[in-house]
Amino acid sequence: MTQTQPRKIVSLGGGHGLYATLTAMRYLSSQVTAVVTVADDGGSSGRIRAELGAIPPGDLRMALAALVSAPAALAELDEEQSSRVTTWAQTLQHRFSGHGALAGHPVGNLLLAGLADVLGDPVAALDELLRLFGATGRVLPMARVPLMIEADVSGLESDPRMSRVIQGQVAVATTPGKVRRVRLLPAEPPACADALTAIADADIITLGPGSWFSSVIPHVLVPEQVNALTRSKARRMLIVNLEPELGETTGFSLERHLHVLHAHADTLRVDDVIVDERSVPLGREREHVERAAALFGAQLRIGDLAVPGAHVHDPRKVARLVDGLAERSR
Predict the structure, then answer these.
(1) What is the span of the domain harbouring residue 271?
(2) Cystine design at 163: which of 35, 121, 154, 184 (Cβ 3.0–4.6 Å)?
(3) Which residue ranges does UniProt annotate as crossing the membrane (predicted)?
(4) Distance between CA atoms of residues 24 and 172, nearest Å
(5) What is the pLDDT of residues 140-165, one digit of tens each?
(6) Distance CA 254, CA 275 (A)
(7) Which three-class secondary structure state does DSSP give residue 156?
């Protein structure tokens, strides 16, 4: 990069998909903001939201760990600082074992929940932890209140035409039926104001990859956030999963991923739909995906994005592709 000021990058998502994207974006800039879903109701996050009424901290913790321990961030530190930060990042992710009340809780979840309780604000808690670790960027919740995912699911009744309403991220992610549509409860929740400001100021915005119905689509179900994405002058990029996810999107083609997203937010506009070359072979299938990308006003961008022999994105490869696309728009 030749520009004197680092690009401002906003990455929307949740879970492992967002972790990989943040690691990639950190190669391009020190000014990376994560906007994270807050609908998890399973495991440690589910227990904390049920007992404290707090936003689930799990995906926020993972985003925080990504910014703290990204290779590009550690490379900016001396050896002693890098070792210290790495230890803290590992501690954030460390889960207590055993069978007692703390079993299964990651340290970072408890630290976030406790600091938010002391400060009275989850955003202030996230900012304080980043300052504590000397990390740049920000981690922001999509909303300041815990959300619930509700889905219409078919294939659970004897009549295949019938659908059933199920609630909860874990239930949606593990249903043996086919998810048709998802909603957020409360409906049309207010967006996090800091996230809206970050989107308005961004040079690059990414959405995905991740669990399609529980980490990606929820971001387009917050009206203020979709409006901010539509108005943004940033280069907006949709990074699509390498393969369908068991449970949520079993049997989905890449084209169907795009159609489902569009069905939930037909006003969403992006500039680039980024896919791995192995996901879209040449021929009619690629033509179908190009037409699906055009629903968002986007161009299909194809590259070698995966770790060899694994179904995970390679952060360096993703960073190179995103950097090249951003340079075109300068």
Answers:
(1) 9-146+184-328
(2) 154
(3) none
(4) 28
(5) 999 999 999 999 999 898 888 889 99
(6) 9
(7) coil
Contact call for residues 117 and 52 (beta carbons, < 8 A):
yes
For residue 169, is it within any domain?
no
CA distance to 24, 169, 203, per residue, from 32 (Å): 10, 26, 10
Element (H, E) at 8: strand 8-13
CA-to-CA distance for 213 and 211, rounded, in angstroms?
6
Q: Is residue 57 part of a domain?
A: yes
With 0.85 as the threshold, say if the pTM is over it.
yes
CATH number for the domain spanning 91: value is: 3.40.50.10680
Q: How many domains does the chain have?
A: 1
Give per-residue pLDDT as tens, 164-206: 999 999 999 999 899 999 999 999 999 999 999 999 999 999 9
H helices of the chain, in order, are 15-25, 43-52, 58-69, 71-74, 79-93, 107-119, 122-132, 169-174, 193-201, 223-231, 254-264, 284-294, 315-328
